[in-house]
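Risk register update: the risk of archive-format incompatibility is retired. Evidence:
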Amino acid sequence: MSHSNLMNNYFNPNSVYTEEDFRRRFRMRHHVFERLLRDVQQVNPYFRQKLDRAGCLGDSMDETHGMSESTCFDTIQQFCDIIVQVHKDEYLREPNQEDLNWLIRKAEDCGFLGMIGSLDCMHWDLKNCPTG
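Archived output:
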């Protein structure tokens, strides 16, 4: 039942909730979610919805509630490993000058001048970043 409700509320063409609702609830745009889902399913068939013994699509959301802690942890670990494997070169890297310029423009458009200077320096080796 949980899976059906989720699908009806967010993923059907006549869904109850809007794109804005989806973004607020899941902290990403719907098309980004769909892309991540496709990428993960391509790498590991475990994440594809499968037919059960009766030939119906399994309701994985309901089955999840019965998963042991170690199975949940292993599944999340696999999911995260796939995301890193597939997207590290594009998204999980240090920003280049083009990225920084885009961030500065975007922040300035919203009235946040000097935004890059306020970023936490711990993760990037910047020439003038204080250490210690």
